[in-house]
Amino acid sequence: MTSKCKHIYISVSNDLVTDQRVHKVCETICSNFPEYKITLIGRLKKDSKPVNQRAYNVRRMSLRFEKGFTFYAEYNLRLFLYLLFKPRCVYFSNDLDTLLPNFLLSKIKGSALIYDSHEYFTEVPELIGRDKVRAIWLRIESYILPKLKTMFTVNETLAKIYSEKYHIPVHAVRNVPKLDGYKKNENIHNIRAKYSIAPTDFLLIYQGAVNKDRGLEELIEAFSYLPEIYHLLIIGSGDVHQRLVEKTMELKLNHIHFTGQMPFCELAAYTIQADLGVSLEKSTNLNYRYALPNKVFDYIASGIPILVSPLTELCAILDKYDVGQLLPSHEPKVIAETIESIFANQNQLAIWKENTRKASEEYCWEKEEKKLVARLLEIL
Q1: Side-chain half-sphere of 64: how many Cα atoms within 13 Å?
Q2: CB within 8 A of 350, min separation 6: which ones?
Q3: pLDDT digits 0-9 by tens, 258-308
C-alpha cells in the first residue's frame, strides 16, 4: 500500500534518552525513506536528561503523573489529542502502552499503523499478582492485535507466540547495535580512574533496567564473597534501584558502583572498558523467559564475554557462538564462585573474547534493519 502522507509519528512511553531501538528505527527510516518527516514522541520526567541532537524531530510530553494507571491514562489521552489534530500520517506504536491511541486514530483517519512490541508486555513481572490491571492490558491486546497488518517484535520466539496467538504475520527484528557503535570513545583509563578501578582489577558490567527479577539482588550479595579486585558497574535505573543502593551500603561493598541512567550515546565508552557483561534475568515470568536483552548484544559488540541466565534465546546465542557462560544458579555464593572460575581461566576468556568479534558481525543493525526496511516498503 502506498500512502500519500509524508509524516510518520513514532510513539513510545519512555523519555527517549536510553531507548536505542527506537532511535535506530528512526534513523533507518530517515535514511531509507527521506521523503518522510519523522517525529518521535515520548515523555519528559522531572529527572530526564537532555536528548542529544538527532536527524529527526523529537517531542517529549511533560506529564502530571509519572507511574501507575494515572500515568498511562494521562499519556494515552495526551498522545491521542496531540495526534488527533495532525494531518493524516503513518502511526508507529512501540509497545502495548502506546497502541490504543494509535489504533483508534488509524481507524478514524484511515491511516497505516505499524506496531513494534519490545517485550511480552502482558507477561512482565510488574503485572504478576495484579490480575485486574493485567486483564485490562490483555483486553486491549486481544482486541487490537488480530486487526493489525504490520507487527514487529524483538526475537523469533516472541514472533511465533504472537503470530500463533493472534493469527497475524509477526516479523522479528533484533535490537542489536550498529557495527561501529562500540568502537568509538574508548575512554577506558579515565572511566576506570573515576571509580578507582586498577588496570589489573576485574570489571563486570550490568546495563539496562534495574527492575525486579533481573538477578541484581543476588549479584550484589555475591560480591560479598568476592575480594575487592572484582568490581561491578550498574548502569541504569528502575523500581529496585534505590533498594539496591541501600543494600550495597549495608553490606559495605565499595567495589560496586552505580551510575544511574545514562544516554545511549555515552554508554559505549563505559561498556568497552569492562571484562565481563552480565544478564541474569530470572525465568519467573514469560517475558524474561523468552527475552533477548539488547545489553547482551552490546556486550558482544564491545568485545567482552558474557555471563547470562539459561534463558531460551540466550542459550541459542552461546550454542552458536560460544561467547561466554551460562549461570548455573542464582544462589549468591554460586554466582561468586562462577565469576572467580571465569577469571581463573584466562585462556578460555581469550577464546570467548575472540568469538565476540565473529558474533558481532552477525548481530548488527546493518543486517537487522534490512528486515525492517523490506516490510516498510510494503506500507510507505
Answers
A1: 7
A2: none
A3: 999 888 888 888 999 999 999 999 999 999 999 999 999 999 999 999 999
Interatomic CA distance for residues 56 and 75, integer angstroms:
22
Distance CA 348, CA 334 (A): 19
CA–CA dist 175, 72 (Å, integer): 25
Report phi then psi at 294, rounded to 5: -65, -20
Domain extents in the chain: 7-176+365-376, 188-362
Cut 0.90: pTM above it: yes
* β partners of residue 206: 234
Pick the CATH number of 7-176+365-376 from 3.90.1150.10, 3.30.420.10, 3.40.50.720, 3.40.50.2000: 3.40.50.2000
Same fold yes or no, 7-176+365-376 and 188-362: yes
Write the DSSP assignment of 104-157 as a string of letters.
HHHHHHT--EEEEE-S-GGG-GGGTT-HHHHHHHHHHHHHHGGG-S-EEESSHH
Distances (CA, A) of 50 to 11, 28, 78, 319, 351: 18, 22, 21, 40, 40
Q: How confident is the model at residue 189 (pLDDT cuts 50, 70, 90)?
A: low
Cell of 238: 528502575
Q: Are the CB atoms for 259 and 234 separated by under 8 Å? A: yes
Give the CATH H-level superfamily of domain 188-362: Glycogen Phosphorylase B; (3.40.50.2000)
> What are the cell numbers at 284?
519467573
Cell for 327? 549461570
Q: State pLDDT tens for residues 59-78.
A: 999 999 988 889 999 999 99
The enclosing H or E element of 72 equals helix 68-84
